[in-house]
Amino acid sequence: MKPTLSSFIAIIASVLYLAVYFIPDMGGSDVMGAQWLYSSSLSLGIVAFIGLRYKVYEEAIKQVLFYKFTWVFSLLVFWAIGSYVYAINPTETLVTLARLITTYFVFLNLSILYYNQDRAFLFTGIGYAITAYLFFDAIYVIKGFSANLRTMDLDAAILGLNKYHGNKNVTAATLLILIPFAMYIIMSAKWLGKIAGIFALFLGTFGLFLLNTRSTYVGFALIMVLFFTGLIWKKKSALKPALLFVLLPAVLAIFASNMRLKLAVAGQENAGGYGTVTKRIGDINIASEQNSRIHLWGTAADYALHNPVLGAGYGNWKLASIPYERDRANELFVPYHAHNDFIEMFADLGLVGGLCFAGLFLLLLYYTVHFLAQKRGDELMVIIAFLAVTCYGVDALLNFPAERTAMQTMLSLAAALVLIPLDKTSRNLRRLPFIYLIAGAALIIPAIYIANETFESLKIQKFVMGEVNADPKMATIEVEKLPDIPNLSSSTLPMKAMLSRYYIRDKRFDDALRVLKESENDNPFLHYNDFLRTSIYASLNKMDSAHFYAKRAFDAWPRASSYYKNMIFTSAKLKDTNEIKRALQVSLDVNNDNALTWNQYLLGMFEVKQGADKNLLAQLEKTLKKFPADTAILNPTKNMLRGGNRDLQGLTAKGNALFVKGKYGQAAAIYKELSSLDPGNFSHLENVGICYYAGRKFAESLFYFAKSEQHPGNNTGKSAYFAGMSQLSTGKKADACASFNRSQAKGYPDAATAIAQHCKK
After folding, report:
1. What are the φ/ψ torsions at residue 507 (nearest 5 degrees)?
2. C-alpha span between 407 and 398 (Å, rounded)
3. Distance between CA 231 and CA 40 in Å, rounded?
4. What is the average per-residue pLDDT within 452-461?
5. What pLDDT does residue 270 have?
6. Are 363 and 72 spatial neighbours (Cβ–Cβ below 8 Å)?
7. Mean pLDDT score, 518-547
8. pLDDT at position 282, please?
9. Cα dist. 622→124, 631, 638 in Å?
10. How deeply is 268 buried, as exposed, middle or buried, from its count of CB atoms within 10 A (0-12, 13-18, 19+)?
């Protein structure tokens, strides 16, 4: 078959879809906002183009809509749409539905455009385009890695490779899924194309292994095994060229990346979490994941087993997961994903949705084996297309590629290529093309609207979320522009709760309470709204109300230090020692037995009793013996309870009171004075840093965290942790991860969670 205009159009459409790889964040807090908007808009344009060339594509539409794969995919989409009715948060379902619908139409559009085209011409054109993408993506990784190493440590240099894909793990996954098409060009092209393919494969593999992502190491090994297994089974004549031109360059690239990483490690002052290729391969074991992925898989599976019919609603596992973390997660860290899209789909949509999603991959496996067994289509094309599906499948087993536009685009393209050799159906329903065009407009236009709203929200969230742990500075009128979709931030905090913080700052307490009430059910499990209500009623000196909401928040999430502090604070103001004791016991019951927990308890009891009695002093001594390394936290309390320096006692109480009231600048001044009066206690410097952090003066906060870290008595890792949080708030993710690693090295308990949340998958 000779290539036609339609063949060129199919290749151009593929290239346009794949261009999403290089869509930047466009001012949003995450690249996926702009990328999903681009992809959904392009899908509508292609549906319109197909409609304009209706007679050309009429037969293709009829055939593609009768694919069994299309039926299963359609059932998944419409079951997900139906989950809007019962979802925990229907608005979040809309946000994720827009992405699923976009992916659905990427597959349908490409399948229609690929139908009955010259397969060799089509596959070669797409193969060259993807190989070019692989080359440029690899160059970005390799150049970025070298540039980062000039100013960062190894961990930060690797984590900083996330410009177009959100984080370095997604960067690695998107590199991996492109590699099979470079292998196709190597095996099918003449010498000039073969050399280009080898070069792209070498650079792509080199960049892939620089990224230190264990899941892609597994994926790379698997596709190589499947590739050579397929050749041995169906194309033995290609085995020797494959060994020479595919395996050899790949192995050389792995050795080269290992050598480059060895040089980088040798230049490090301290060992970090990343290292050579051999080190990372050695880290691949079940035990390394027992506190992260395996726990998440277990909780998602448990929820799916207890909700087998409906699930939580599409995209709502992130909310359903929260109760499982009550006794485990520090602060307000939410496991947004199960790190396994298959299990998460069962948790989101029950048996029907989960089986549909798994069925898509089983069908692609079945058709691949069937086509190879029947010698239908070029064996190499069938193998290569399925290898791309395999890359996605491995990532879906260990991460969450369903969220990322580039990965969804490649899955759709690869699936469309796998299914090209399908038999033609004899059914001829005249209305099918009309239904396709109407359904396309009816589904994609709302998806574009939602994608645009999400994109606009992410542009504001970039600043609002940067201030979430700080004194808000952004103008309220700008925050009020937040769209109603989505109603949750990327960390599942209700967006209207974010707005309420600005009303609280402006002392518009009625407005703050109003929006908190409006968003009460947006995330019913996190109780962040109750945390903010505590602040409002404390400012209004309505301590009974403040205590009610502090208690409700704390009981829901007792490992959050801010919730616990509020609970102790309001109980002390009400002189309720029973509630203080209960709060302590609840914290101990959830394994939160640390110096901070006991210190807050001692301070609360001291305030209620207006002094230290025999029992309180005895508890102080036990606490000091139990946590000998936490002098920074406990020394000021020790001085107060023992009746030490009265100036220090008064100043500490004054600084604490100012901080609780949100007067961070004044509190910082008090802690600076304490630092000069008590230079042996580094916690004063640390407290200055925390005040500036809370007041969003991150340059100042980093200065004092650095001074605190350098203090000879500081061995807690807390300053390094909050330095990381400051850097994270200013978008310096690589520097933040380096700080979190220093904190973890000193044993600070929250550091590991921060690394898992922000630095690794």
Report:
1. 60, 30
2. 14
3. 37
4. 93
5. 62
6. yes
7. 92
8. 65
9. 73, 13, 12
10. middle
